[in-house]
Structures are given as C-alpha cells and as structure tokens.
Specification:
Chemotaxis protein chec, six-stranded antiparallel sheet, alpha+beta, globular
Length: 143
C-alpha cells in the first residue's frame, strides 16, 4: 500500500527521484500515465494489469468509455528507476501535469500520484475547505 507525501524536484532532463518506499512497492518496471485532476498516476505492474482488465470490459459502443480508454492508455509509459532511484518522465506527461521544478509525490493506496507542488497545494486548499461535504460523502459510502 502506498501512503505518505514527499517533496522532490524534477531535473531539466525530466528525471525525478522516486522515494525508496515507493520504489520497493513499484518493483522494477511500472507504468506512469495521465491521471485525473492534472496529476500523473503511477501503477505497479500488477495493479496496472488489474486496471487494464477492468477497462477491457467497458463497452466500445460508449463514446465516454472510448474517450476514457484513450486518455488513460495513449499517454501511458513503462518506466523503471535508474541506479540513483530516479525515473524519467516523458515530455508529454510532464507537460500534461505541468511538472517544471517542484513536485509532490503522494501515496494513494494502490498507486502513486505525481503533482506539481503548486497544483497539489492548490488542490489541498480547495479540498480542506469542503471537509464537511467529504465527511458526509464518506458516511453515505459507509466509511
């Protein structure tokens, strides 16, 4: 399970240090793709395979399903950490998530998310303002 929040920087070549705890759980090869909320999702291979199986069941006759599948797979890249523990994030994914210098790397249960630090701080500011609504939704879900 991925938990925690880490602050890192991305170098001019698009390499970022992946926290050691996350590297261990991600394994040798993993997938980085466009995520929701303009961040990147990072999946260990097994979790990516599970997600792929679920997406295969979506009806191709649904315009929304086709769009979601394209969004998720077209930007995906298989990655691995180098000997220093850095991963290379492809240019198209850096552009999508507006990754320029300062990053927040967070654990979200079955995946890792990579955010520009400004976007993460902005998101947290918006989310914390609506804690009552989040608490109500959790109660509706039985959590």
């Amino acid at each position: 399970m991925f938990i925690g929040e880490y602050q890192h920087t991305i170098d001019p070549k698009g390499r970022v240090f992946m926290p050691a705890k996350f590297r261990e759980e991600l394994g040798e090869k993993f997938v980085v793709t466009k995520g929701l909320d303009n961040c990147l999702f990072v999946y260990p291979d097994e979790e990516w395979q599970n997600l792929e199986q679920k997406l295969r069941t979506l009806p191709l006759t649904s315009k929304e399903a086709r769009a979601f599948i394209r969004f998720f797979f077209a930007g995906a890249a298989e990655c691995e950490a180098d000997k220093q523990g850095r991963i290379l994030i492809p240019a198209n994914l850096r552009e999508y998530a507006s990754l320029e210098k300062e990053l927040s790397i967070i654990g979200v249960s079955t995946r890792v998310e990579i955010w520009s630090r400004d976007a993460w701080e902005s998101y947290n500011g918006e989310s914390s303002l609506d804690q009552d609504a989040i608490i109500e939704k959790m109660a509706e879900l039985g959590i």
